[in-house]
Write a structure and sequence with these properties.
The structure is a single chain. The protein has 6 helices and 4 strands. The protein has a 4-stranded parallel sheet. It is 42% helix and 14% strand. The relative contact order is 0.19. It is globular, with a radius of gyration of 14 Å. Strand 1, helix 1 and strand 2 form a beta-alpha-beta unit. The protein has one domain.
């Protein structure tokens, strides 16, 4: 199933959301694992799409960040990559923390 990963915000603008659903099988975005932050960040529109299997929230754990910390991966990536790494690290939670169910957790990060 081909899914568009929208970044940097959790909720894509309406136009992008509609276009993504026309051309892709679904849409995904990176969301915080903490329940309170998730409830604020993910609007009802995306939750409804998730129930219809058209939206996939993706979460990261701190352990997932190890591959992104690889110096070879980071080389020549520029300022945007550093900002992305900082934001992913901020949104990630330790593996021992309680997370919200029914979200896709990354197991590996593809280069």
């Amino acid at each position: 199933m081909a899914v568009l990963l929208y970044y940097p915000l959790v909720k894509p603008p309406t136009e992008i959301l509609h276009q993504a659903l026309l051309y892709w099988d679904g849409i995904a975005s990176i969301v915080p694992q903490e329940r309170r932050e998730y409830d604020v960040a993910v609007p009802a529109e995306l939750q409804e799409l998730q129930e219809r299997r058209l939206y996939t929230p993706v979460t990261f754990e701190l352990g997932d960040m190890e591959e992104l910390d690889d110096p070879e991966w980071r080389r020549d990536r520029g300022q945007a990559s550093r900002v992305l790494l900082q934001e992913l690290r901020r949104m990630a939670v330790p593996r021992t923390a309680t997370s919200c169910p029914s979200r896709t957790r990354t197991s590996t990060v593809r280069r």
